[in-house]
C-alpha cells in the first residue's frame, strides 16, 4: 500500500504510558503495510533520543519537534485568539512547515492523526483518519464540575472550545476513532454524526510482555497503583485512596502497604509517603516487578476516559484488580469474576480487605483476568479493523 503520514502529539516510544502504548502499536501495525512518515512532538531530550533509537527503523521520514510553549503561555494565547488551550499548546510553525514540505515531496495518500491536538495539521486535500482516543472535551467538563472558581470557569471554557474543535475536525475526517463504544456513543450523541463516521478501535495488551509470574510469599500485603503521577485524575485517585481508604485497610490489616508507582509524582502525593503504609516510588524502570509483587492492584479513578491500560496490564499479569466504575467502563470483563468493581472509599476498602484475607479467591480472580485478556485483547485482533478502514478510504 501507499505512503501514509502519521501525526502524533507525543513521540510514540517507548510504549510506557497510556497514549504511547496505543500510538506505538498502531504505528508499528501501519508500518507493516505502508511506507510511513512520522511527525511528532517531543516533551524533552529523552523523547528525542527515544525517537531516534526506537522509531527510525519503522519509518521513512521522521520529524520530531520539541514542544517549548508552556501551558501558561498557551492559555494566554488561547484566551486572546478564542481557541482551545489544548490545541494552542501544540500549534507550531516548524511542525506545520514540515507537514507542508512532506506533502509536496512525497506521494502521501492517507493521513493518520493521533490525538485531537494534531488535527490542526491534517491537510484539506488528503483523506485522514482522526484517532481521538478519548473525548478530551468531556474530561475538561468533568474537571470543571469538580473545581471551584476561577478554575471552574477555565475548565468549562476549555471544554466548550475543545468540543467545537473536535466536532469540526470529525466533520472533516473520513472516520473518527475512539477507544471504547462508550466514548464513541457519547461523541455521536453530542455531535449528531452518523455511526459510520464515528467508530471504535480498541486498545490491546502486549500478552508476551505482560504475563503472570510467581507471586512472592511471606511479604507484607502490597496494594499497587500505577500511572503517570502528575496527571490530575491519577493524583486525585491515588491521593484519596491513601488518605481515605488506607486507614480503613490498615485498621484490619495493620501491615498492609500501598505503593504509588509512576513517574513525576505530585508534591501532594510525596507528602503522603510513610503514612498508613504509603510508599511513593517515583519513576521506575519497569512497573512489572511491582505488579508481580502486588496482592491487589487498584484503579480508584473518579475521572476516567476510554480504556485504562493500567487495568489491562494488571489483568494480563494475573493480578486481582479493584477498579472504580469509571476505570472499569470500556473494559470487556465480568465484575466479580475477572475483576472487582467498587465505588467509594468504604466499598474499595472492603473489596481490598476481602482479597487480602482470601488469597485463593484473589488468585482465582487473577487467573480469570489473564484468561479474559488473552481471549479479548491481543493487539493484532484489536487493530485488524483498521486495515479494512484504510482499504475503504
Textual characterization of the structure:
With 393 residues, this protein is of the alpha/beta class. It has two domains: 3-204 and 378-392, Glycogen Phosphorylase B (Rossmann fold); 222-376, Rossmann fold (3-Layer(aba) Sandwich), CATH 3.40.50.2000. It has helices at 18-31, 45-54, 71-81, 85-89, 93-105, 136-146, 151-172, 181-191, 232-252, 267-270, 288-293, 309-316, 325-328, 345-357, 359-376, 379-392; strands at 3-8, 35-42, 62-66, 108-114, 128-133, 175-178, 198-200, 222-226, 257-261, 278-282, 296-299, 321-323, 340-341. Strands 3-2-1-4-5-6-7 form a seven-stranded parallel beta sheet, with helices on both faces. Strands 10-9-8-11-12-13 form a six-stranded parallel beta sheet, sandwiched between helices. Helix 6 runs antiparallel to helix 7 and helix 9 (232-252) crosses helix 14 (345-357). The N and C termini lie close together (12 Å).
CATH homology superfamily of the largest domain: Glycogen Phosphorylase B
Main sheet attributes: strand count, strand direction, barrel closure: 7 strands, parallel
State the end-to-end CA separation: 12 Å
Rough shape?
Answer: globular
Strand neighbour order, sheet with most strands? 3-2-1-4-5-6-7
Q: List segments where confidence is low: pLDDT < 50 over at least 5 consecutive residues.
A: none
User: CATH fold name of the largest domain, please?
Assistant: Rossmann fold
Query: How much helix is in the residues?
Result: 40-55%
What is the N-to-C order of secondary-structure elements (H for helix, E for strand)?
Answer: EHEHEHHHEEHHEHEEHEHEHEHEHEHHH
Strand content range? 15-25%
Number of strands: 13
What is the CATH C level class of the largest domain, in words? Answer: Alpha Beta
Average predicted confidence as pLDDT: 96
CATH architectural grouping of the largest domain: 3-Layer(aba) Sandwich
Q: What's the total helix number? A: 16
